[in-house]
């Protein structure tokens, strides 16, 4: 069967996409300010810091204070981008985000690197797998998990134009960069990557490339998989999901996150309300992570193309 | 700005009546801390701050105030209404369903005068610092004011903020701490002794102004004007305001019992008798 293919233009880390997007915003939007909690290098915020020292705020290892300051900075028209690891961007500061940002509807962009198990060797203390759930439950919060360098850069630029709180999730490892460098990012608009008829694969973040790899193998096995990049988990593109599942009759959701509270649960809600269909989850199974290389961890926690293939076959058998 | 002392005293008495009537009507809310800070709010909004009751969230070209200990919303709402932010009749809706006057202040319902939600304690100083830094970025020379409970300083985020403000020379900020010595479970000394707060703020690099008579209109005016004179000198300014919780209603004074409890009909009558109507009830 013919299938559209995507080319990896070279592995890059998504956090560098964030850094590049922030650098661009520094030049184009004078209201953008950046705050960091002692992880400037890890978040790739150095160029912004060098270019705009007056708009860069080092808050030290004090994330709660960082979120509060960011909320306050919006009063007077600034657009603060906070940067730290996903774990410290969410769980550590949940109440600050809830009250000072989300409930107060402040225009803060919470930019979170090192999400998921692909943080690697640092282990479970730093590998948050619950952040999508925490953030999507906050009323008014937009939740975005781009898939590669180019898309993370485009998303970073796009969220400055959206008024309101945003959670932007990205990661540490170098992963295939395959989306167009000149793309415009539309919040909440799922990207249809591959047409298929037997199964819908909905993937977010690092799992999008794995889904494309899985679709190739499935194609060789005679299974036609449709692949959609759900870069925005909230607001979810219900229409794109339903259109695809109505065609294929089943779905596999893929994310580097706990199945509890993640993309999969959001999709399950849309389907159960509108078009019940068999669903399988490629996600962590209510567990913490551990030390290891990103590849070892993706394998052990079944977050790779092999897992997607297996779940795709299983879900088709349930139709 | 109106620094006519007899008027300010009349307004204070009227605000006390508002507080008592608001919490009584819904049999909930926090009268103790509200009454203790009534003189402070009256002075802040009528003498000290340059502010525009025609509310704009961004607050450019005016002084801004942030209430961190949001549970004393009754005094905040009353003073905002009587400063012209919204009609005093709306005080009737405090804590009722579909009201803009939520139990704790929020921007969510669009009440003029409120720029951040507060209630979960310890977050207001960080917010105030952020607003102060935006003022600086915008070349706006107006000041940021904030108010915090003393018990609230037990929340660690305050100390992150206190450290940051000094390190970054945030000198367009005046943070006032309501030192009433009480919190829900008892006196602050008994619940969690905080030691010498003046020495702590000074050790962190702040300028500290003490107002020993925090329920005296004249003392607050003098102390806050001194605090203003200390801004712009490379250091954040802290005002330690010694107040009496429940001030102006004898049976509510000097106790934590009225932190979060409303008076019954009889108690309301006693409280109102001690604070005769001045400017006019809502």
List the main descriptive attributes of the protein structure presented here:
heterodimer; A: 319 residues; alpha/beta; Rossmann fold; seven-stranded mixed β-sheet; five-stranded mixed β-sheet; globular; B: 282 residues; two-stranded antiparallel sheet; 10 helices
How does this structure look, described?
The complex is a heterodimer of chains A (319) and B (282). With 319 residues, chain A is of the alpha/beta class. Chain A has two domains: 12-175, Rossmann fold (3-Layer(aba) Sandwich); 191-317, Rossmann fold (3-Layer(aba) Sandwich), CATH 3.40.50. Chain A has helices at residues 14-28, 46-51, 63-73, 86-89, 94-103, 131-136, 149-159, 207-220, 238-248, 263-274, 294-300, 305-317, and strands spanning 12-13, 32-36, 56-58, 79-85, 109-113, 142-144, 166-169, 174-175, 191-194, 199-203, 225-229, 232-234, 251-258, 279-284. In chain A, helix 3 runs parallel beside helix 5. In chain B, the strands form two sheets. Chain B has a five-stranded parallel beta sheet with strand order 1-2-3-7-6, with helices on both faces. Chain B has a two-stranded antiparallel ribbon with strand order 4-5. Chain B has one domain (5-273): 3-Layer(aba) Sandwich (Rossmann fold). Chain B is built from ten helices and seven strands. Helices cover 39% and strands 11% of the residues of chain B. The interface between A and B is large, with 32 and 39 residues.
Short description:
The complex is a heterodimer of chains A (319) and B (282). Chain A has 319 residues and is α/β, with parallel strands linked by helices.
Largest sheet features of chain B: 5 strands, parallel
Note the run of SSEs of chain A as H and E.
EHEHEHEHHEHEHEEEEHEEHEHEHH
Which stretches of chain A are poorly predicted, pLDDT < 50 over at least 5 residues? none
CATH topology of chain B: Rossmann fold
Task: Give the name of the CATH architecture of chain B.
Answer: 3-Layer(aba) Sandwich
- Give the largest chain-chain interface (CB within 8 Å): A-B, 32 and 39 residues
Shape of chain B: globular
Q: Which class do the helix and strand fractions of chain B yield?
A: alpha/beta
* Straight-line distance between termini of chain A: 22 Å
Unreliable segments of chain B (pLDDT under 50, ≥5 consecutive)? none
| Average pLDDT figure of chain A | 98
The percent range for strand residues of chain A is: 15-25%
The CATH class name of chain B reads: Alpha Beta
Q: Write down the Rg of chain B.
A: 17 Å
How would you sum up the major sheet of chain A? Answer: 7 strands, mixed
So, the CATH homologous superfamily of the largest domain in chain A? Thiamin diphosphate (ThDP)-binding fold, Pyr/PP domains
Characterize the quaternary organization of these chains: heterodimer
Number of strands of chain A: 14
Family (chain B): Belongs to the transketolase family.
Pfam families (chain B): Transketolase_N
Domain Transketolase N-terminal (chain B): 16-268
InterPro entries (chain B): THDP-binding, Transketolase_N
């Amino acid at each position: 069967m013919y299938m559209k293919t995507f080319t990896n233009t070279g592995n890059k880390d998504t956090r560098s996409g964030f850094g590049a997007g922030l650098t661009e915003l520094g030049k184009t939007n004078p209201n953008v300010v950046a705050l960091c909690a002692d992880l400037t290098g890890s978040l790739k915020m150095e160029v912004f810091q060098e270019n705009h020292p007056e708009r860069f705020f080092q808050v030290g290892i004090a994330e709660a204070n960082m979120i509060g300051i960011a909320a306050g900075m919006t009063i007077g028209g600034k657009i603060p981008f906070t940067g730290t690891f996903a774990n410290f961007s969410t769980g550590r500061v949940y109440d600050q985000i809830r009250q000072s940002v989300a409930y107060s509807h402040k225009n803060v962009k919470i930019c979170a690197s090192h999400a998921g198990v692909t943080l690697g060797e640092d282990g479970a203390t730093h590998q948050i797998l619950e952040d999508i759930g925490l953030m999507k439950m906050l009323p008014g919060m937009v939740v975005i998990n781009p898939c590669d360098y180019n898309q993370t850069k485009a998303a970073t630029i796009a969220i400055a134009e959206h008024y309101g709180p945003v959670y932007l999730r990205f990661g540490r490892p170098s992963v295939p960069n395959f989306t167009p460098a000149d793309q415009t990012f539309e919040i909440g608009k799922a990207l249809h990557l591959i047409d298929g008829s037997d199964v819908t694969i909905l993937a977010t973040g690092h799992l999008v490339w794995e889904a494309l790899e899985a679709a190739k193998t499935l194609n060789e096995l005679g299974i036609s998989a449709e692949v959609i990049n759900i870069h925005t988990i909230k607001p979810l593109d219900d229409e794109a999901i339903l259109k695809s599942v109505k065609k294929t009759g089943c779905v596999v959701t893929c994310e580097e996150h706990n199945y509890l509270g993640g993309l999969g649960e959001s999709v399950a809600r849309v389907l159960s309300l509108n078009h019940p269909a068999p669903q399988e989850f490629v996600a962590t199974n209510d567990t913490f992570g551990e030390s290891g290389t990103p590849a070892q961890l993706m394998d052990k926690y079944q977050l790779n193309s092999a897992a997607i293939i297996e779940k795709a076959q299983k879900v088709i058998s349930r139709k | 700005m109106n620094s006519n002392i007899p008027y300010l005293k009349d307004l204070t008495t009227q605000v006390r009546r508002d507080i008592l009537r608001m919490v009584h009507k819904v049999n909930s809310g926090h009268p103790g801390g509200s009454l203790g800070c009534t003189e402070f709010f009256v002075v802040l909004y009528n003498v000290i701050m340059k502010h525009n009751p025609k509310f704009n969230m961004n607050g450019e070209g005016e002084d801004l105030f942030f209430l961190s200990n949001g549970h004393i919303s009754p005094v905040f709402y009353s003073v905002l209404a009587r400063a012209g932010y919204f009609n005093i009749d709306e005080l009737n809706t405090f804590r009722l369903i579909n009201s803009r006057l939520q139990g704790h202040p929020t921007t969510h319902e669009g009440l003029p005068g409120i720029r951040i939600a507060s209630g979960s304690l310890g977050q207001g100083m960080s917010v105030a610092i952020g607003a102060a830094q935006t003022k600086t970025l915008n070349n706006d020379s107006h000041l940021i004011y904030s108010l915090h409970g003393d018990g609230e300083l037990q929340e660690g985020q305050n100390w992150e903020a206190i450290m940051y403000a000094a390190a970054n020379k945030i000198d367009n900020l005046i943070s006032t701490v309501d030192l009433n010595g009480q919190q829900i479970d008892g006196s602050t000394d008994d619940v969690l002794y905080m030691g010498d707060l003046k020495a702590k703020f000074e050790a962190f690099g702040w300028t500290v102004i003490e107002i020993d008579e925090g329920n005296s209109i004249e003392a607050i005016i003098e102390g806050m004007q001194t605090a203003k004179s200390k801004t712009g000198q490379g250091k954040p300014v802290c005002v330690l305001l010694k107040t009496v919780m429940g001030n102006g209603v004898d049976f509510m004074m000097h106790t934590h019992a009225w932190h979060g409890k409303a008076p019954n009909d009889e108690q309301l009558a006693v409280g109102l008798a001690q604070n005769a109507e001045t400017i006019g009830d809502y």
